[in-house]
């Protein structure tokens, strides 16, 4: 994969991922724990969903830097900035409000697939982890947790606060939890082969 293609994968993947997140939010069938937290913050305190993505992202980047005793990761900051702005952009133009259950289901699954596809594309850029993923790894190293336990802790905290804030926790949240990993694993080798042929 050429450097140019690798660099382009980063913003392209984030745009696709943010589009997928927006579709899941609009489906009203639930989304992942972290984005449910951001929607809950928006519903309770105003601002925008994307703004809360950026606010929490910056706080987690600073927490990660303190845990590692290093300077904040600029690529992590850039990731949450781009992702937050893209989510607000898509939410502003995709004013969907599906009433039929079939429409909600289709919208959710389209969002889930786009989100996982977007993640599979932007990781090809190899610019680093998102703040939440980096926090997961930092907890592993700091407290000797397994990766699975660390992810459970971070996602569990986000889920708890999302529930307290009445975020969109629903069946879709459960589906995302169990299927996002396998879907990303399914997409990554195919994306790698696709972009590998573009050299």
TrEMBL record:
The chain crosses the membrane at residues 7-25, 45-63, 75-93, 105-123, 143-163, 169-188. Coiled coil: none annotated. The keyword Membrane applies. InterPro entries: YczE/YyaS-like. Keywords: Membrane, Transmembrane, Transmembrane helix. This is YitT family protein. It comes from Thermoactinomyces mirandus.
């Amino acid at each position: 994969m050429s450097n140019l293609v690798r660099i382009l994968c980063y913003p392209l993947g984030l745009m696709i991922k943010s589009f997928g997140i927006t579709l899941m939010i609009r489906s009203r069938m639930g989304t992942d724990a972290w984005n449910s937290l951001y929607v809950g913050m928006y519903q309770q305190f105003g601002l925008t969903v994307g703004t809360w993505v950026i606010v929490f992202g910056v706080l987690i980047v600073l927490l990660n830097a303190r845990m590692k005793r290093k300077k904040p990761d600029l690529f992590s900051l850039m990731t949450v900035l781009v992702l937050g702005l893209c989510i607000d952009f898509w939410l502003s133009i995709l004013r969907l409000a599906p009433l039929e259950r079939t429409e909600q289901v289709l919208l959710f699954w389209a969002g889930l697939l786009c989100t996982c596809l977007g993640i599979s594309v932007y990781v090809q850029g190899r610019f680093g982890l998102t703040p939440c993923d980096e926090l997961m790894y930092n907890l592993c190293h700091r407290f000797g947790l397994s990766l699975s336990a660390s992810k459970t802790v971070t996602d569990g905290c986000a889920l708890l606060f999302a529930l307290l804030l009445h975020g969109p926790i629903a069946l879709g949240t459960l589906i995302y939890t169990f299927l996002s990993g396998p879907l990303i694993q399914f997409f990554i080798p195919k994306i790698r082969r696709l972009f590998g042929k573009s050299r």
